[in-house]
Amino acid sequence: MITIQGLSKSFTTRSGERVDALRDVSLDVGENEFLTVLGPSGCGKTTLLRAVAGLVPWDGGDIAVDGSPVRGPGPDRAVVFQNFALLPWATVLDNVAFGLRMRGVGRAERAERARSLIATVGLEGCEAKLPGELSGGMQQRVGIARALTVRPRVLLMDEPFGAVDEQTRRLLQEELLAIWEEHRMTVVFITHSMEEAVLLGDRVALMSARPGRIAEIVPVRLPRPRSRDVGGVARSGEYAEITAYLWERLRDMHAEHRPDRAHRPDEVAS
Ligand SMILES: Nc1ncnc2c1ncn2[C@@H]1O[C@H](COP(=O)(O)OP(=O)(O)OP(=O)(O)O)[C@@H](O)[C@H]1O
Fold it and tell me: Whose Cα sits closest to atom 30 in ligand 1?
């Protein structure tokens, strides 16, 4: 479905320093797969997602969706951002319908599709509100509804639940799983949370820092559907095992970048 081959991208900072954000990243995401991407801060997760979305150019390598090379944004891919990226002056209905309007869908159909998705994300009755009148969790529900209006085959999510409180995050995780279980699509979901990566994903792509590479792909063989009992999933032994393993790997990666913090069992004070 999504094929990424040998992707490299560097930035030049304002002080003229070169930062290798991604180097030789290769990754395949299957049709209707839910792939989570986890890695230390600054390892290039957002850059990778934005490249797949066609929002940033890259230096080397190829990205294809269903065999078609990515050359820019397209209706087959929708993005949900961490900071919601809603239009502050537009109502919930207009925000959700925005992508449809851009695609020339008529007013009546726009409103109907937007209303139906607003209901799907549990915001019925909020159609006329402005984003500023909603909580962070509600704003992100609007972001998800907006992304789904165009019926994308690929949903790209950049730490979408990073800015909401823990309880809202759990509810949004359950809702996203329920939506994905019903309307299957390919999801690439970036997170800082090991727990979230395991709860949601079919596989976790673990990235290492500077330059960002795929360090390992960790399969998550927890049963599905998971939406009705995310709490139960989180209490299972396999869940605990995978999250512990991910933490081991991430801790090693952090230690590589901070030799002073490396784990040296022989030097533990008595
Ligand atoms: N526009 C830019 N100009 C210069 N450097 C950039 C730019 N965008 C990203 N970088 C650098 O590229 C590297 C990767 O950034 P990116 O945002 O993709 O990482 P990330 O893994 O998503 O980080 P985080 O987990 O903290 O959100 C970082 O070192 C970052 O500072």
Answer: 42
Q: Taking the domains of the chain in order of start, what are their residue ranges?
A: 2-76+153-257, 86-151
Please determine, for residue 262, whether its predicted confidence score (pLDDT) is greater than 80. no
The structure's pTM equals 0.92
The class level of CATH for 2-76+153-257 reads alpha beta
Contacts 24+ apart (CB under 8 A), 5-8: 5/61, 5/62, 5/63, 6/60, 6/61, 6/62, 7/48, 7/51, 7/58, 7/60, 7/61, 7/62, 7/63, 8/58, 8/59, 8/60, 8/61, 8/211
Mutate to test the pocket of ligand 1, among 7, 41, 47, 214 (most ligand atoms within 8 A of CB): 47
**How many angstroms does the Cα of residue 42 sit away from the middle of ligand 1?**
5
Ligand 1 pocket: which of 11, 52, 257 to mutate (most atoms within 8 A of CB): 11
Q: What is the mean pLDDT of residues 100-122?
A: 90
